[in-house]
Amino acid sequence: MAFTQDELKQQVAKAATQYVKSGIIGVGTGSTANYFIDELAKVKHKIDGAVASSEASADRLRKHGIEVFDLNSVNSMDIYVDGADEITEHMHMLKGGGGALTREKIVAAVAKTFVCICDETKYVPVLGKFPLPVEVLPMAKSYVARELTKLGGQPQLRNFTTDNGNVILDVHGLAITDPVAMEAMINQIVGVVTNGLFAARPANILLLATNDSVKTITK
Ligand code: 5RP
Fold first, then answer.
1. Which of 36, 47, 75, 214 could form a disulfide with 13 if both were Cys (CB 3.0 to 4.6 A apart)?
2. Ligand 1 center to residue 101 CA distance, Å?
3. Which residues does 91 contact at the CB level (< 8 Å), separation at least 6?
C-alpha cells in the first residue's frame, strides 16, 4: 500500500520528536512543520517552549498550549525543525514555498542542529525545479526582478505579503549548480532581504519519509 504525501509528512513529523529533549525548540513553517507542531504538543512537558519562524506557526503552537518565545530572549537552541521544498544529498535546501524564508533562516541560524523533515518527493539531485523564493523590500521589487533576470531566472511576483511586510519574487528557470555561491550572489542584490537557498547553513540531519520507512541521512 502506498502512503499519500500527507501521510508521509505526518510520519516524518512524528519521527522528529525523537530529537526533542528539553529547553526551547526552533519551529519551522508549512504543512510538514504543522504536523510537527501537532506531534510536539504530545511531548510538550519535556520543553520550556518554542521559537516560531512565522505568525502562523506561533498561533498553532499557542493553540496547543506551547509557550512561544521571542528569538531575542533566547541565546541558544539545540534544534530547529522544518520542512523544505527541495533538498539535495549535500543537505542544501531550497525553502520559502510558504513565504517564511527569512524568519526560518534567522531561527535556524541560532540552532545547533537543523533537522529537516521531508517526504521523498523533496529529495532532488539539483535544486531549482521549484521556483526560488526571494524576499524583497517592496520599493525594490522591479529593480531586483531585473537583476534576477540577468542571472538567468524568470522572476514572478507572488500575490503575498510576508510577516515582515515585504514581497516575494519566485524565480523560475535558475540552474542552481552551486547553491552556496548563488545564495551569496542573490543576497548581494540591494533590496533583497534574503533568498530561499539554505546552503551556507545546510541541514545537519535529514529525516526522509519514503514508502518503506523514515530514513535518517546525515552529512
Ligand atoms: C515555508 C517553507 C516550507 O518548509 C516549505 O515550503 C515546505 O512546505 P510543506 O511542508 O508545506 O511542503 O520553507 O516557507
1. 36
2. 9
3. 116, 202, 203, 204, 206, 217, 219
b/e burial code for range 153-190 (CB count within 10 A of at least 16 → b): bebeebeeebbeebbbbbbeebebeebeebbeebeebe
Q: Is 81 touching ligand 1 by the criterion CB < 6 Å?
A: no
Catalytic residue among 39, 86, 104, 183: 104
For residue 175, the model assigns a pLDDT of: 82
Pairing of strands 24-27, 77-82: parallel
Residues whose CB is less than 8 angstroms from the CB of residue 142 and which lie 6 or more positions away in sequence, other chains included: none
Q: pLDDT at position 211, please?
A: 96
Q: Does any ligand 1 atom lie closer than 6 A to the CB of residue 99? A: yes
Average pLDDT, the chain: 97
67 is an active site residue: no
Label the pairing between strands 49-52 and 24-27: parallel
Q: Which of 9, 54, 85, 116 to mutate to test the pocket of ligand 1 (most atoms within 8 A of CB)?
A: 85
Tens of pLDDT, residues 121-134: 999 999 999 999 99
